[in-house]
Amino acid sequence: MNIDKLEKTALSHHMATVTIVDSIVGNGVYKPSFFPTIVKKGEEVFCVIDASSKFKPNVDLIDAYITMASFSLELKIKLLLAIEKSGFQRGHKLMNLYESVSEESKTHIRSKIKEITKKSEMHKLGAKAINEHCKVQFAWEPHKLIANSSEAFEKWRYHFEENSRITWFAGYSELQQAIDSRIDQLKSS
């Protein structure tokens, strides 16, 4: 297991995700407070960015964003696991990977996401919009974010085949920051 190669691969996928988000929300003109939250109910797709956005999102890139972002998160969780356990875990389901993370790391990730979102008015308004407009039980809580986005990589690659279930993807930037923070903490100890 080459942790350096895994780390570089995770970073390159994150950078590609950021590029896609930039194309969705304004091509370099606008930087959102949080990355898009996508909720799909049947044929309806809701894209919540944040309350300050004046740009109409480019919804043609949503499936590319979710596919790349969920794979990026997958790689980041696998990197955390490789550092914690000196091994590589296979699979695309984010929840299965996250359940293998140590309790110490889960506590750190939960604390970091709370720190990121608690004082942010945009995160509060975003959660409210998601709950009201999309009619889902949304919270900036890592376990829920990962559980509800767990199969995003598999489902959104072929989103055109399935339209009857509710599926969503949320918390990408918050999870990335929190996992990065834990990885930095582990690497410095």
Feature tags:
189 residues, mainly alpha, three-stranded antiparallel sheet, 8 helices, globular
Mind explaining what this structure looks like?
- This protein is mainly alpha-helical.
- The chain has one domain.
- Helix content is 61%, strand content 7%.
- It has helices spanning 3-25, 62-85, 94-100, 103-118, 121-134, 142-149, 152-157, 172-188, and strands at residues 37-41, 44-48, 166-169.
- A three-stranded antiparallel sheet has the order 2-1-3, with helices on both faces.
- It is globular, with a radius of gyration of 16 Å.
- The relative contact order is 0.18.
- The model has no long low-confidence stretch (mean pLDDT 84).
Lateral strand order in the biggest sheet: 2-1-3
Shape call: globular
Give start-end ranges of low-pLDDT stretches: none
Strand content bin: 5-15%
Structural class: mainly alpha
Q: What is the count of helical runs?
A: 8
Radius of gyration: 16 Å
End-to-end Cα distance: 20 Å
- Give the mean pLDDT: 84
Describe this structure in a few short sentences.
This protein is mainly alpha-helical and 189 residues long. The protein is 61% helix and 7% strand. The protein has one domain.
Which helices and strands appear, and what pairs or packs with what?
Blueprint: H1 3-25, E1 37-41, E2 44-48, H2 62-85, H3 94-100, H4 103-118, H5 121-134, H6 142-149, H7 152-157, E3 166-169, H8 172-188
Antiparallel strand pairs: 1-2, 1-3
Helix pairs in contact: 1-2, 2-3, 2-8, 4-8
